Known about the structure:
Distance between the termini: 19 Å
Oligomer: single chain
Number of helices: 8
Number of strands: 0
Strand content: under 5%
Structural class: mainly alpha
Order of helices and strands: HHHHHHHH
Amino acid sequence: MSKLVWFVLLLVAVSAIVAESTLENDDKGGPCGKFSTLRILTHKLRHCEKAARNYNVPPSVQCCRDLKEVSIPCLHAVFSSDAFKKVGVDPKIAITIPWRCHHIHH
């Protein structure tokens, strides 16, 4: 399948998971639990920056390892946050990182 089809399927899956788990995360303070999206971006996803800027740059092992510790709803919140946009990362590329981690490091 083309990359566009995979991207659309990924977006549909992420949207479904986010919609389903919204109620689940309300008691923890938000989609990222007790942490802000900025803290997740600067502490957990800092190793993913190059891969989030350029589709041709493979995500590092550390990026993929850190990504496993971030829930899908939190990841979605980070990707749609103002902080994420301010660092100049392309959300269309960043959303592909979980898929790229799976295919590169498995």
